[in-house]
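Convert to structure. Protein one:
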Amino acid sequence: MSIAFVGIDASLNHGAVVVLDLDGGLLGFSFYDKTKKGTELPKDVHGFGTRVPAEILKIEDPDRRSVARLRWLRDWFGETTKSIGGNVFVGLESYAIRAEHGSHALGEIGAVVRLAVTDRPNCALRLHDPTSVKLWATGKGNASKDEVRAAVG
């Protein structure tokens, strides 16, 4: 049976799934983004990308918009990961314990992603705190997003 390693970074506005084989070879990369139509994505972003549907972003009631976006994210993560065969080991960045901005929304997204990816058979989930992720990628636990991106790019 094959083995795949899946790394997930999820937020309200953008996120990604990367799939590696046992030797670290890239098997797939998918991402979503909230950019408006016509906005160019970064030139060095490759893979299968999609945008959060405009009809969700246009919902005026913030509570209904939030629920619609969570439902879309659940479906996107479920569809993106269900085609991966064999045993799957998923690494997901856990919550930043002292973060105050958007902590409730991030908690909702985290729960939705956990449910979506563990609905598949043969899936093991491991959570990694943000400081450890940055430290592993760059050697510096307080690295910026740009520093992490440069280190793994």
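Protein two, convert as well:
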Amino acid sequence: MNAQQFEKEKLERAMVLRTGVVRKISAEHFKEIRNLPKEEIFKLCEELLQSGDGNLGEIARDWAYRCRKRYEKKDFRTFERWLKKYIRSWGSCDHLCVHPLGHLVLQFPKLAAKVKKWARSSNQWERRAAAVALIPALRRKQQGQYRSTHEAS
């Protein structure tokens, strides 16, 4: 599939696999690493992100999301670094923000205040992340299962 048709900025590699195919590959290979410490998995994710390949970035974000039961508040720094350093497209921004970052904010509601500060950033992906990363929490709140940052304070 030609991903360039969905992006304004020039992509280095416009040919990407369909998301379903990439996630299937991701799931298969995650089985091999799932028992590693989360920090080791995140290091592998960083290496995949550094490649600049969209498919490998998708795998990295998927692996990070598969570690969600092991998230700690300090993981925010990792996801924020990934956002600032590696996110260069709508799809990669949305995937990072709705899945790993969004679920981290869901688990640690006070992080929402840090996310909201990105709305004033000059970086378009940080501005987008300021809204998109709150989607999981807002969905949960609609279901009555989430305490907002104001309620948690």
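The CA atoms of residues 49 and 57 lie 5 Å apart. The radius of gyration is 15 Å.
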